[in-house]
Each structure stands twice: as structure tokens, then as C-alpha cells.
Design a protein that fits this description.
Layout: H1 4-10, H2 34-45, H3 55-67, E1 87-88, E2 94-95, E3 114-121, E4 127-132, E5 136-145, E6 151-156, E7 162-163, E8 167-169, E9 175-180, H4 183-187, E10 190-198, E11 204-212, E12 216-221, E13 250-256, E14 263-270, E15 273-279, E16 281-282, E17 290-295, E18 302-310, E19 316-324, E20 332-334, E21 340-342, E22 354-356, E23 364-366, E24 371-372, E25 378-379
Helix pairs in contact: 1-2
Protein name: EGF-like domain-containing protein
InterPro entries: EGF (IPR000742), GBD_Irg-7_N (IPR057086), Innate_immunity_reg (IPR053295)
Organism: Plectus sambesii
Length: about 375
């Protein structure tokens, strides 16, 4: 039986760094490659059966995403005079960005494209369903098994008919990669099925990758008014360019590459297990107008999100992106505008601040918007 590290190394990864238009982005602290992420996941889950949502739960998530109203982005919206500075809208819940930035998009048509779906099967005999939208071209199915078992798969189109692959890509014995050219053009957009098969029972990981012009880019922010969502260059086909901090509530803010396409909901997964579902909210005066949260990393683990929406033709779309949870600050106070300082551990927080890691040397205050300081004692002024 091969080790989990062998499995991860067997996965074929085609990765290229996208060119960027903004020289100020930091190329350090790069996100691990797909094989590194899968190796970490394999180590954490130990190739044990994965608890995942049932088919009924997955259908409910998809239906809920379809029912979410299309958010309307209104630019130059004026404060109604009753909201605190930096917020507007009903109940003053819509942030107004104080540092609007230009989003640098990765190329969703590069390599084998963006991930449209990704999951772990503990038997490698399940059937999974995923949407293919009108902005998808060529699709690649990649299945990697634990050990030396040989996996394969069958694709079913929205009418239940099998779609044969255009070609097979060279791969090790425990990995199966099939290419489906122009699959949406020939079979239509809609809900496709993937049935997994394997030579002997075992765990496998699958991904559905698609060359697409519809991609998403953004990152995690502590202050929902902060538009600095990209602190590193877009890498390959991943769309998250700023990572969250362990133990610190943060928001995922992002933009969609096509201006006429809007996102509706985001699902969070921890170590391949579904954890949270958020409807998408909007911000104003921001390069990244959509946001969800707050989300708090519970461990330094393997995370991914599935971002859902509906295209102009009524077809559901989904994109999958991965992120790491960075280690938390040591003896630092962190405010909602991302400021921090080397101070003694906090013992209390003012102005509704939240004390994180209480009673330890790593204790610090997470401050509400409009406050900063090691105990959230200082109002922010704009």
C-alpha cells in the first residue's frame, strides 16, 4: 500500500503563474501547490471515511443557492445620514470601502482550468453531481486513488446519457485523467453526474476542472470595509490571494471576472467536510463587491470554498478555490482594520471587542469596525 504522500505526488498538476498588472502585489508567502494541498489533506484525514453531506443535503444547498435573489450592485450610493461612517443600506449592514482597489484576475482558461467541483470518496464508487455553465469549454476529470488501485469514471450529461472522453491524459496507475472537449457546446449546460469506479475498494479524490472565462478572485479581510483582498499574486487557477488568520474572524471578499455575472452563495469546507453556508452580501465602492462571513479558522487545516451563482441563461455555476489558515499572531492586538502591535497579552476588550486566546500569552483583542488599539479602546476616524 503506497503512502498518502505517494498518492499526492502521483496527482498530475499543471500549474502556471498568471501574469499580473499590479506590481505592488507580494509574490512571497505563496499558496502550496495542488499536490502539496492534497498531501496535507491525506495526512490529516488519514484516508479514513470522510463525513460529507448527503445527496439530499447537497440538493438543498444547490436549490438554496438558486433561490437567493440576484444582488444588485449600486455604485455611488449615499449614506442615509443615520448609519455610522463606512456603512449604508438597510440596518446599516452594507460596508463602504475606504480603499478601493483594482482586482487582478487569474486566467481561468490556463492549464486545465478552474476547479468546478472537488471531493473525497471513501469507497470510490459514489456518484457526484456538479453544474457546468455556459462559460465552460473543455473539461478535465481527475481521479486519484489511495495505493495502487486503478480508478476511472463515467460522465453523465443533464439528460442522463453517458459522455465519452475525447482523450485520456498520461498518468500513473492510481490516477485517471480524462479530457472532454466542448462538452457544454455538445451536451448543453446543466447538472452533470460523475460515477466513480475502482479496481478494488478504497478512498479516492476527484476534481472536475474546466477552462472558463468565468472566474473569481479575492481574499480574506478582517474589516469588511477593507478592499485590500489581494496580498499575493494570483497563482495558477486558484482565486484566493489573501489568507485568513487562525482564530480571527474574517470575511471573504471577492469579485467575478465577468461584469454581468453575480455570485449568490458560498459554502465553506474544512478538511473536505462541509461546515458553513453563507448567502452573498454586497459592498459599495469596492473592487471586490461581494463578501460573506464572518468565518473563523478553527485549526491550521485544509480549507476550500465553493462559490455558487446563476448565469444569465438560468444555469447554475460553481467554482472551487483553496486557502490556508495562517498561524495566529503571538502577543499581538489585532483590530478590524488589520492593524497590529507587539503588546502585552490582553486581558479585556472594550467597545464590544472579542478577547481571543484568553488567559494565554497569545491573547489579543479582535475589535469591531471603527475601533482599534490593544483593547479596542481607540475610535478610528476617517
Amino acid at each position: 500500500m503506497a503512502s498518502t504522500g505517494t498518492l499526492a505526488c502521483a496527482i498530475v498538476v499543471l500549474c502556471a503563474t498568471c501574469s499580473v498588472a499590479r506590481a505592488t502585489l507580494d509574490s512571497s508567502n505563496m499558496l502550496p501547490s495542488r499536490s502539496d494541498r492534497l498531501e496535507r489533506l491525506a495526512q490529516r484525514v488519514g484516508w479514513k471515511p470522510i463525513v460529507r453531506p448527503s445527496e439530499a443535503e447537497l440538493n438543498a444547498i444547490e436549490n438554496k443557492a438558486r433561490r437567493q435573489p440576484q444582488p444588485k450592485i449600486e455604485h455611488n450610493m449615499q449614506n442615509d445620514g443615520f448609519c455610522p461612517p463606512g456603512y449604508t443600506g438597510i440596518n446599516c449592514t452594507s460596508p463602504i470601502c475606504y480603499n478601493s482597489s483594482t482586482i487582478v484576475y487569474h486566467d481561468g482558461t490556463a492549464n486545465m482550468g478552474d476547479d468546478v467541483d472537488w471531493d473525497v470518496s471513501d469507497t470510490c464508487t459514489d456518484t457526484y453531481y456538479f453544474p457546468l455553465d455556459s462559460f465552460v469549454n473543455d473539461v478535465y476529470i481527475e481521479i486519484s486513488a489511495n495505493g495502487l488501485a486503478a480508478p476511472n469514471g463515467r460522465i453523465l450529461n443533464p439528460t442522463g446519457q453517458e459522455v465519452l472522453p475525447t482523450s485520456m491524459l498520461p498518468s500513473p496507475l492510481n490516477t485517471w485523467i480524462a479530457k472532454y472537449e466542448n462538452i457544454v457546446k455538445q451536451n448543453g449546460a446543466g447538472r452533470y453526474g460523475l460515477t466513480l469506479n475502482i479496481s478494488r475498494a478504497g478512498t479516492c479524490i476527484y476534481s472536475v476542472q474546466a477552462k472558463t472565462t468565468l472566474s473569481v478572485d479575492g481574499g480574506f479581510i478582517i474589516d469588511p470595509r477593507d478592499d485590500n483582498v489581494q496580498t499575493q499574486q494570483p497563482q495558477g487557477n486558484n482565486g484566493i490571494e489573501r489568507m485568513p488568520i487562525h482564530g480571527v474572524p474574517s470575511y471573504l471578499a471577492f469579485a467575478v471576472s465577468l461584469s454581468n455575472i453575480q455570485a449568490q452563495s458560498v459554502s465553506f469546507y474544512t478538511n473536505a467536510v462541509f461546515s458553513l453556508f453563507y448567502p452573498v452580501n454586497t459592498r459599495y465602492g469596492c473592487g471586490a463587491p461581494y463578501f460573506v462571513g464572518a468565518f473563523t479558522c478553527s485549526s491550521v487545516g485544509f480549507y476550500h470554498v465553493k462559490i455558487h451563482g446563476v448565469d444569465p441563461y438560468g444555469n447554475a455555476w460553481q467554482r472551487v478555490y483553496y486557502f490556508d489558515c495562517l498561524a495566529g499572531p503571538s502577543s499581538k492586538a489585532v483590530s478590524s482594520n488589520g492593524q497590529s502591535a507587539n503588546l502585552l497579552p490582553s486581558s479585556q476588550c472594550f467597545n464590544e471587542g472579542v478577547l481571543i486566546n484568553a488567559g494565554t500569552a497569545d491573547a489579543f483583542c479582535f475589535c469591531k469596525p471603527l475601533f482599534t488599539g490593544n483593547m479596542c479602546q481607540t475610535p478610528l476616524t476617517k
